[in-house]
Amino acid sequence: MTTSFAPRIFSGIQPSGGLTLGNYLGALKRFAEYQGQGAETIYCVVDLHAITVWQDPEKLRHNTREVAAAFMASGVDPEVSVLFNQSQVSQHAELAWLFNTVARVGWMYRMTQFKDKAGKNSENSSLGLLAYPSLMAADILAYHATEVPVGEDQKQHLELTRDIAAKFNHDYGVDFFPITKPMIEGTATRVMSLRDGSKKMSKSDPSDATRINLTDDADAIAQKIRKARTDADPLPGSMEGLQDRPEAKNLVNIFAALTGESADQVLARFEGQGFGAFKPALAEVAVESLAPITEKMTRFMADPAEIDRIMGRGADQAAAIAQPIVERTKEIMGMIRSR
Ligand code: AMP
Ligand code: TRP
Fold first, then answer.
1. pLDDT attached to residue 1
2. Which domains, from first to last, does the chain contain?
């Protein structure tokens, strides 16, 4: 028997520092677009994930509110989506523990994000950093989410979520957890560094010139694009011609994701032109799309109490969905419920 699950989208973003254009195009912009398309949408600021590497408590509070503000500024409407903060819904941590007994240690050591973040001295990383994907599976499966929009870098974690769901279902002879579908879609599933086309644009890169932050003003955005690494060749008429030009490819993909065109459509307009013409045009669309978001974020951040109120209400809505699912999980595993 295969249970059918109602379409439900879940995704999360860590409050572990400023957000980048990669987070916006690979995640936030799409989160807003999925609203009202037939699936319920649930979005979460995942602070329990952020603390797998040490966070300054005061900064964590600031960053948590800032990510909440970024969700709303990007068009996630708390009247339409459930928007909340992970640590306020205790079912995430509870289900993660149950999944820690289902997942295997070897699965965790294989995760490339763990290897990257743990670095050479992995014995000294937190146990939470190793178990991170188990918590991520709990985030998703506590809601029986069927689809998860993320950037390319999260693909391996989502495969592990599917493995945990399948092993749980198998070990307990049930068909209780859905096998979640990753949604890695669009032209910006992997926005690259402005300085090195082989590296992901990341909030943790030591050089600020590699990324556009959602808090950058128009001048900073224009300057970073002007200084972005490129080559001296003119642009070809289609993406096939950019195969060995990672930096050029990245800028064209960013342009396309910002305007909602395909990369080939963008190239059709710029064919034969150099970066002297392309970069100012890109800076203009980037500023035009990001300035209103930055402005809205600033407005939300001016009223932290209102953000907290919205996130508190979201947490109540989230807990109402997750609580019966986690209760049922415990029952399936043999735990007694006497109150
Ligand atoms: P994080 O900031 O690591 O919590 O990531 C939040 C979301 O943004 C995830 O869905 C990531 O896959 C996505 N993301 C982060 N960096 C990039 C990037 N450079 N390109 C595309 N998506 C990204
Ligand atoms: N691991 C994700 C990242 O680093 C964040 C995340 C945590 C997440 N839980 C999730 C994403 C659940 C999607 C679904 O980007």
1. 52
2. 8-189+303-333 (3.40.50.620), 208-299 (1.10.240.10)
